[in-house]
Structures are given as C-alpha cells and as structure tokens.
Amino acid sequence: MGAGHGHALHFHGHSAVHRAPAHLKVLALVSFVLVVVATPNHAYPVFAGYAAVLLGIAALAHVPLTYLLPRLVVEVPFVVFALLLPFLSQGDPVQVLGVTVSQQGLVAAFGLLAKGTIGVLASLLLAATTEASALLLGLQRLRVPAQLVQIMSFMVRYLEVVTDELRRMHVARESRGFRARDPRQWPVLARTLGALFIRTYERGERVHLAMLARGYDGTIPAAALAGPTGEASHGHVGHGHQAHVASETRPHPGRAAREVGA
Fold it and tell me: Are residues 149 and 106 in the same domain?
C-alpha cells in the first residue's frame, strides 16, 4: 500500500481542478477558510456566495453532490452544538415555532453552521480532487516541516494496514461467538484496542529499523512520497520501505488464534 494509491475521499477525474498543482489548491483552501471565518455571522448573502463558489468548483471538477453530502457527517458535533446555542446564549428573546430562544444565539448558531459546513465542504473538495501523494508533495513544496510531512506520509501508508488489522481481530472475535451488545463486553473491546496499539507500535519499530538498514537519514526522498512509480524508477529507501509495508500486510501464522484471546 503506497501513498500513490487513491485514498477513500478521492474522486477520480481529469478535470482542470484535478490537474491543478496541489500546493496551489492548499493555499487556496487556507486562504478561503480564513476569509470565511473572518466573515460576520450576519452577512447572509456573503455565505450564499461562498456556497455558490464551492458548488461551481464541484461542477467544474465533475464531483457530484451525492458524493460530497454524505461525507459532511463529520460535522455532526458542530451541528449539535449549534442547535444548542439559541437555548444557551444570552440575548433578546424571540419566538421561533412557539419556542423562546435567544436572537443572538440564533445568529451565532447560523454563523457556526455556515462556516463549519463551508469549511468542511471546501476540505472535501480538496480531498476529492487531490491524490494523497500529490498533497504530500504539495505540502513539501510549501516548506511544511519535513517531520510533519513524514508523519502524514506514514499515516496515509498505514491507515489501511491498521484498519485491516482491526477488521481481522473483529472477525476473530465474532468467529468465537462474541457480540458487543452491552457495557459488560466493554473490557474485551478495551483489551482489543490495547492489543492493536501494541501491535501498531511494534510494527512502527520494525519499519523504522528496516528504513535505517536501507540508509534512512531523517528525510524521505520526494519520489518516495510520489508513490510506487517514483520508487520503482529510483530504487532508493522508499522502495525498500514499500516492500516492508507489503510484508507487514500479510497475516502472520497463528495470529488469528492470538486475536481471539485479545
């Protein structure tokens, strides 16, 4: 699993938005979000204009709303907090559907919802039109600290590996009749998470030792961030790291039995 593989949020396409340089899209996103956050909560037409801009970009990139809208579920906590603001805030009371709420709270709730939704939608558009490897290279070009870029690179590479590990542990538990139906099963789930953390930590140590053995000096070449194509053509530490990742994804003999105990 390399960084060159498409991530779950990416929507494959060949539009002008997809082809735009990743570092320019990152700069545009940051600038746009800063402008949105600085907009007064009562500037309703301005928020409508922001939404129109994002919808236009989605149309230009041929990313359907049916792909974006379900992924807005990530902002549910902000929606819940925004719904509580009219009841918790102090201010002039007004009647809404027979319920007395704070007028200032309503304005603040609208601002939170509008800014949160626009910001999340803009981020989803960036993720939908930019490969993970291109995003990492864009951050590197923007002079983001190398350690931070490396952390993000490993996150992209190993997120699916760790998810598959958790899925295998889940299958191993259910194959023995375990079902987490009430809080009495929570200790078992806690032990599962503990075992997953230990295995992930140990995998990280093995990968680090493998990288040191292949000449890792604290930096990852740009071609390694670019994915398997760049690695195959350069034959540097990234290629050895890729092979080690592939070996880590293979189930270890007897692991299923140990997962049951977890």
Answer: no
d(CA 191, CA 23): 42
Summarised one tens digit per residue, pLDDT across range 134-174 is: 888 888 888 888 888 888 888 878 888 888 888 888 888 88
- How far does CA 252 lie from the centroid of its chain? 28
Predicted confidence at residue 76, as pLDDT, reads 87
- Residue 125 pLDDT more than 50? yes
Helix (H) or strand (E) holding 100: strand 99-102
> What do you get for the CA distance between the two ends of the chain, in Å?
26
Boundary-marking domain end, from 74, 105, 135: 135
Residue 34 has pLDDT above 80, yes or no: yes
- With CA atoms as reference, report the closest residue to 17 among 119, 116, 115, 127: 127
| Per-position DSSP letters for 84-124, written without gaps between them | HHHHHS-S-EEEETTEEEEHHHHHHHHHHHHHHHHHHHHHH
Supply the range of the domain harboring residue 205: 145-261
Q: Is residue 11 part of a domain?
A: no
- Per-residue confidence band for 227, with pLDDT thresholds at 50, 70 and 90: low
Residue 3 falls inside a structural domain:
no
Looking at 90, 110, 135, the residue that finishes a domain is: 135
Give the residue from 28, 42, 36 showing the smallest Cα distance to 116.
36
What's this model's pTM, rounded to 2 decimal places?
0.68
Q: Residue 215: left (phi > 0), alpha (psi -120 to 50), or beta?
A: left
